[in-house]
Amino acid sequence: MRLPGMLVASIERCPVLGGKVKSFDGTAAKRVRGVKHVVQVSNGIAVVADGFWSALQGRKALQVTWDEGPTAQVSSAMIAREYEAAAKQPGQVARNDGDAERVLAAGGRVHEAVYQVPFLEHACMEPMNATAQVTPEACVIWAPTQNPGGTQATAARLTGLPPEKVTVHTTLLGGGFGRRGEVDFITDAVETAKAVGAPVKVMWTREDDITHGFYRPATYNSFRAALDANGMPAAWRTRMVGPGILIQKGRVKAGEVDPAAVEAVRNMPYDVPNLRIEWTNKDFGIPIGFWRSVGASQNGFIIESFIDELAHLAGRDPYEYRRALLGKSPRHKAVLELAATKASWGAPLPP
After folding, report:
1. Rounded CA gap, 82 and 265, in Å?
2. For residue 303, what are the domain limits?
């Protein structure tokens, strides 16, 4: 994207998620050839130059003191430790069919497993970027956004203009996957353009992109299943621990079960007579966001992996084991059978 008189900006962000600028000195940055402005914006310090390379060199010359905030005390080890401890306690009940706890307590053949999934960044092919031009009369934005309505509303709020005075041109995405539904990179461009009085393209580096995303939630999931004489689950309990996307974004009230967090587990298609799903909201303040299929992207993995474990214990073919559990889900069963047919499941493998 090129406009007459357009400048290019790169933003220095706190190395700790959620941290803020305490103070900064842009004197050395302004000495870098090509640097025109150094301004503070919501997400850090914007170095504005006549080209991206100059903006990056200006960033390196900045002197910034950060207020790192409470997330500075959070570590991967701390998250793992507290997730595990939370999973040992009952959580909020997301689904409760029959009496899974009674059947599990009765003894017999009980299988246990734990599945953990990490925070994942979207890693879009094209890092975050947006171009904005702000005047007293109007704001125009060119951005690879999945959320043009939210982009317009954000720009109207930041500029004080009515929404009808904000025009959003949605460009090709370069990969979205849910990441470009956020508006942090829109805020970068609008605030910077407004501050310097010129059209500005804000470009992120790949390092910015990976370290300042809205991540797929990390979760800890404990499973217990009691198997009957045929090796089928007579009782099943899953305890899920992790943050809720919808709660963090204010779309679901704190204290409620976040539907996105238990998606594909609470509504799994397998017929288990005694089924209990619990969820504990454990949020350390790491920004989280929608990542393709959201809950199902990791929860499908944990459910199907546990089913594979149970099939192995039962000495059953995993396809046939699933078929036997899908008696009340004919649509899922038909899809599974079609996939098996097309794949010639059960046929001898070629030499």
Report:
1. 22
2. 74-120+215-342
